[in-house]
From TrEMBL:
It comes from Sesamum indicum. Its EC number is 2.7.11.1. It comes from the Eukaryota. It catalyses: L-seryl-[protein] + ATP = O-phospho-L-seryl-[protein] + ADP + H(+); L-threonyl-[protein] + ATP = O-phospho-L-threonyl-[protein] + ADP + H(+). Residues 161-184 are annotated as: Disordered. Transmembrane segments: none annotated. The keyword Lipid biosynthesis does not apply. This is non-specific serine/threonine protein kinase.
Length: 495
C-alpha cells in the first residue's frame, strides 16, 4: 500500500508494508531501494526544501538522521552529494572522503567546490539538466582525483590490456575504465579513498606481523588476516600473494577500484588500501560469522533454517541489484558463489570478493571478454560460449546459489551418483517429477509448504536458464523473493 507520494519536482516515493514491522519495501521513483538509500534521498530532498512528512522521517530514518554532518564541511558535502544524489549513488568518492577525512577543508577542495556549486545550481534550475544529472556528476567527480594526484602510467595502460582493439571486441569506453589514477598512485601512502589510514608498521602491528594465528582464509588472490586496529576496530586485511603479484596486478586494482565505490549493507565494505613496495593490501570490514558454504556444510554448529536461507537469498539479491543498477557504474560481480557470501552474527549476508569483478557498461549491455573468469559450476553457459558478459551471468550464478541454499548440495558434487552430480540438472529433473520435498536440504529438518518450495525452485531454475533472455533481472528476483517470504511467513503462522 502506498503511504505517500510527493510532487514530481522532488521525485516520488512510496513504502509498501509487509506483515511484519521492519520489513517494509521502500521505493523511490518506482525503483525498489533499501532503507538506507531511501533515507539518504529523503534527507537530500529535505535539504532542497521539499516537503517530507515528519512521521516518515521519524519512523524510518531516525537513526540515519543522527549521522553527523560535520560542521564546516556541510556545504561542500551537500553540494557535491546533492548533484550525485541519484538513488543508490549515495556515497561518492568525494562524499566518502569528506565524511572520513578529519582535516579541515583544503584550499584545493574549496577551489573545486565553487565550480561544483555553480554547476549544480544550474542543475537544480534547468529541467533538461535533471535527466543528465548522473552524467554531470561523473564529470565533476572524475576530475577530482586528477587534481589531487599525478597520473599513473600503469593505470592508463590497463584499458588497452583488457580490451584489445580486435573487431570482435567492444572498444575501450571511458565509462568502463574510469580515469581515477589517484586510487592507484604508486605513492607509499595509503590511498586517500579509504577511511582507514595505516602505514606498514601499523599494519604489521595490527596483524602481528601477518601472524598465522590471525589468518582467516586463503583465496586465489592471497591470504586474508583478521586484524585489530589501535582504536579497537576489527577488520579483514587481504594480502596479495607475492608470487602471483604481477598476474594479480590488474585484478587487484580492479578490486580496489570497485570496492571503493560501494556502500551497501549486503556488500562487504571497503575500508582502506595500502600500497608499499611489493605489498598490496586491501582493508575491508570484518564479517564475523564465516561463509555461507561453511554454514551449509554444518561447520558452524547451528544449521540454517528455511527463513534464514530465504533472508540470505534476499540479501544477496539486494547486493547484486545494487551492483547492477545503482552503483556509480554498473558492476558485474562474476564470481557469485557460496564461499563468497559472508554472514554476520545475525545471519545477514554480505557479498564479498570483487577480485573478479569488472565494470559493466549501461550503454552497450554486453562486453566481450578476453578470458572467461568465474568458478566452475556457477559459470553462465552463454558467457562461456560467447565470452559476452552481462548482468545475467550473475543471475545465472545466483540461480545456482539458490539451488545450493535450498538443497545444501554443492553445484557440482562428484561423490554423488552420475545423474545427481550436477545439482541444477538434478533439481530440474526432480522439479518436473514434482518431488519437491526430496530436494530440500536433509539437514534442515523442517517441513515447508509445497507452494513455497515450488516458487523457490521455480525461481532458481528460471535464474539458471541456459539462455540469458529467459532469466529475470536481479531486481525482479529480489522482489519475487520478498513475495515468497511474505507467503512463507503467512503459511508459517497458519501452520
Ligand atoms: N571480510 C572478511 N571477513 C571475514 N572473513 C573473510 C573476509 N574476507 C575473506 N574472509 C575469509 O577468507 C577466506 C578467503 O577469502 P578470499 O576472498 O580471499 O577467497 P575465496 O573467495 O574463498 O576464494 P577466491 O578468491 O579464490 O574465489 C574466505 O573464504 C573467508 O573465510
Amino acid at each position: 500500500s502506498e503511504l505517500w507520494k510527493h510532487g514530481k519536482a522532488c521525485g516520488t516515493y512510496h513504502i509498501s508494508h509487509l506483515d511484519d514491522p521492519g520489513h517494509e519495501l521502500f521505493h523511490i521513483d518506482g525503483k525498489l531501494v533499501d532503507r538506507y538509500f531511501f533515507c539518504k534521498t529523503l534527507r537530500g530532498y529535505h535539504e532542497r526544501h521539499c516537503f517530507i512528512p515528519e512521521n516518515i522521517r521519524d519512523r524510518y530514518c531516525q537513526s540515519l538522521d543522527k549521522l553527523p554532518l560535520l560542521a564546516g564541511r556541510k556545504s561542500l558535502k551537500t553540494v557535491v552529494g546533492e548533484g550525485y544524489s541519484e538513488v543508490g549513488n549515495d556515497k561518492t568518492s568525494v562524499d566518502r572522503k569528506n565524511e572520513y577525512d578529519d582535516s579541515i577543508l583544503k584550499p584545493k577542495m574549496l577551489a573545486m567546490a565553487v565550480p561544483a556549486f555553480f554547476l549544480l545550481s544550474c542543475a537544480f534550475f534547468c529541467p533538461c539538466f535533471q535527466a543528465r544529472k548522473r552524467e554531470a556528476a561523473h564529470t565533476v567527480l572524475s576530475k577530482e582525483p586528477i587534481s589531487m594526484d599525478s597520473i599513473s602510467s600503469l593505470e592508463m595502460n590497463s584499458a588497452s590490456e583488457k580490451f584489445p582493439g580486435s573487431p570482435m571486441r567492444v572498444p575501450p569506453s571511458p565509462m568502463r575504465v574510469p580515469p581515477s589514477p589517484s586510487r592507484f598512485s604508486m605513492s607509499p601512502k595509503l590511498n586517500r579513498l579509504g577511511s582507514i589510514h595505516l602505514n606498514m608498521s601499523q599494519v604489521a602491528r595490527a596483524t602481528n606481523n601477518f601472524s598465522p594465528s590471525l589468518r582467516i582464509g586463503e583465496g586465489g588472490f592471497g591470504t586474508v588476516y583478521k586484524a585489530e586496529l589501535p582504536d579497537g576496530q576489527v577488520v579483514a586485511i587481504k594480502r596479495a600473494r607475492k608470487e602471483h603479484f604481477s598476474a594479480l596486478h590488474t585484478e587487484f586494482r580492479s578490486e580496489v577500484e570497485l570496492l571503493a565505490k560501494i556502500d551497501h549493507r549486503n556488500l562487504v565494505k571497503h575500508l582502506g588500501y595500502v600500497e608499499k613496495g611489493m605489498e598490496r593490501l586491501i582493508i575491508t570490514e570484518y564479517v564475523p560469522n564465516g561463509t555461507l558454504r561453511e554454514h551449509l556444510d554444518g561447520l558452524k554448529g547451528k544449521i540454517l533454517d528455511f527463513n534464514q536461507r530465504l533472508e540470505i537469498s534476499i540479501d544477496v539479491a539486494h547486493g547484486l541489484t545494487y551492483l547492477h543498477l545503482y552503483a556509480e557504474k554498473q558492476i558485474i560481480h562474476r564470481d557469485i558463489k557460496s564461499s563468497n557470501i559472508l554472514l554476520t552474527e545475525s545471519y545477514r549476508a554480505k557479498v564479498a570478493d570483487f577480485g573478479f569483478a569488472r565494470l559493466g557498461d549501461d550503454s552497450d549491455k554486453t562486453h566481450v571478454s578476453t578470458k572467461v573468469k568465474g568458478t566452475v559450476g556457477y559459470l553462465d553457459p552463454e558467457y562461456m560460449r560467447t565470452y559476452q558478459l552481462t548482468t545475467k551471468s550473475d543471475v545465472y550464478s545466483f540461480g545456482i546459489l539458490l539451488a545450493e541454499i535450498l538443497t545444501g548440495r554443492r553445484p557440482v558434487d562428484l561423490k554423488k551418483p552420475p545423474d545427481e552430480r550436477v545439482t541444477i540438472k538434478w533439481v530440474f529433473r526432480k522439479y518436473n517429477e514434482r518431488r519437491f520435498a526430496e530436494m530440500v536440504d536433509p539437514l534442515m529438518n523442517e517441513s515447508i509448504n509445497e507452494e513455497i518450495l515450488v516458487k523457490m525452485f521455480d525461481l532458481a531454475i528460471r535464474c539458471a536458464a541456459p539462455t540469458r533472455a529467459d532469466r529475470p533481472d536481479m531486481k525482479a528476483v529480489g522482489e519475487q523473493l520478498w513475495g515468497i517470504r511474505m507467503d512463507y511467513l503467512r503459511s508459517d503462522r497458519r501452520g
